[in-house]
Write a structure and sequence with these properties.
The protein has 165 residues and is of the alpha+beta class. The protein is built from 5 helices and 4 strands; from the N terminus they run αααβαβαββ. α1 runs antiparallel to α3 and α2 runs parallel beside α3. The protein binds zinc ion.
Length: 165
């Protein structure tokens, strides 16, 4: 049987994807702008302290090669933005599947070594509305931010609510 989706559902899904890509683009632009400022700041400082251009160049190249303070931070921030975006898209896709299957309640599962915010939520049950209100896993409500590895399982799940990983 062909999948039946209303125009509104499809439009909403498209809009969510667009919003996500806008958020990711903004985050990446912010990361790039911050890195530019950091490089300019560092170069100005090195120049002011009398460092020769060749030595400044060497310092920047060393930072780039070793993934130091400037470029290491840049790399991590890009990685976190992309990882967070993919995770958010996956969560949305999954919640759409759950909705189609008529699953209305969920249980919070922590994974790895959860942060204090997430730790207190292990085993918490509620509707998607409830979790959207208090903050979905990795949505930024918690100390662990984008590093969050928690998931929402359907209410029929009977396994452990803390996964040692
Ligand atoms: Zn978490």
């Amino acid at each position: 049987m062909p999948e039946q989706r209303t125009v509104t559902e499809t439009a909403l899904a498209v809009k969510r994807t667009q919003t996500l890509s806008i958020v990711m683009a903004n985050q990446l632009a912010t990361v790039a702008a911050q890195t530019t400022l950091d490089i300019e700041g560092l170069v100005a400082m090195m120049k002011a302290s009398g460092m020769a251009d060749a030595a400044i160049y060497e310092t920047l190249v060393a930072d780039l090669t070793a993934g130091g303070r400037l470029f290491g931070t840049f790399r991590n921030q890009v990685k976190n933005t992309v990882r967070g975006g993919i995770k958010m898209a996956a969560t949305r896709g999954l919640s759409g599947q759950y909705e189609k299957a008529g699953i209305k309640e969920f249980v919070w599962i922590t994974a790895g070594k959860p942060c204090p915010d997430c730790d207190s939520r292990a085993g918490e049950k509620g509707t998607m509305d409830h979790f959207q209100n208090i903050g979905l896993p990795g949505s930024g409500f918690s100390v662990c931010q984008a590093n969050c590895m928690c998931v929402l399982e359907h209410i029929g799940y009977t396994g452990a609510t803390t996964m040692p990983r």
